[in-house]
UniProtKB/TrEMBL annotation:
Any one GO molecular function term: lipoate synthase activity
Source species taxonomy: Bacteria, Pseudomonadati, Pseudomonadota, Alphaproteobacteria, Sphingomonadales
Residues binding [4Fe-4S] cluster 1: 45, 50, 56, 285
Pathway: Protein modification; protein lipoylation via endogenous pathway; protein N(6)-(lipoyl)lysine from octanoyl-[acyl-carrier-protein]: step 2/2
Binding site for [4Fe-4S] cluster 2: 71, 75, 78
Full protein name: Lipoyl synthase
Amino acid sequence: MNDMSAAPRPERQRKPDWIRVKAPVSKGYHETRQLMRDLSLNTVCEEAACPNIGECWTKKHATVMILGDVCTRACAFCNVKTGMPRKVDPLEPEHTALAAAKMGLEHIVITSVDRDDLPDGGAGQFVKVIKALRRETPNTTIEILTPDFRGKMRASIEAICEAGPDVFNHNLETVPRLYPTIRPGARYYSSLRLLEEVKAHDPMIFTKSGMMLGLGEQRLEVHQVMDDMRSAQIDFITLGQYLQPTPKHAKVEDFVKPQVFDAYGSIARAKGFLQVASSPLTRSSYHAGEDFAQMRDARAAKLAKAQNKPGKKDI
């Protein structure tokens, strides 16, 4: 007999054709997955249910998620587990460097869960990972995607910048109006200030930030976030489609069409970003190595142009 009192199951939203990807089945995917298991490493690719995991892992590109797989925050968009995290793994830095060496990575992205329970917010582990990578794979360029280090920002930024990552990424995620519902544990202007502080500490570190679209933001709000990012001297912006991980997460308000992403990309370039990635499947670390190389070339060209610019003639 059917239980008529049972609550109806939430209806899953149907994705448009341009957002669908094939299930990962390649040999390279399974090899990358096994390597992460062997070294007891977590990846944001799996924990955040990234749609690009099949493509990236086939190419043996993975974004390592340090400081465990349990987050102290509960953002409405994120699929990472929430709760009280376990102790920090002292072997994690060496295992991360070993994974980079075995995969032959030219560029690696390191991210983490929020660790509000730690005195430094986890900054010390980022430093150890960067140093281990510099020792074991000195030619690998390093991109970090950090939390906001709430209440510990200045000291955390200084320590990480001293370790010398090539790219410092922290995502604003959405427009300020949506923070109370989408990112309640964070503050928009605090996240913006974090990236501003990185540039103030070391202008040569590339800074990067990203947004998810489709959460109910308005076009002019997106333009304003771009302006805020440029005011903070952020070099690289990523724009991608938000996808609802489970029915309990924030729902997709709009599947933004590819041509709209193209238009946003053109506007971002006109505003002066060194690098722009804007498409439905764009994620923070998607094609990160290729994008970094292009961004580095763009800055070199910009600096060369500035040096060769003739000065004003004496009147």
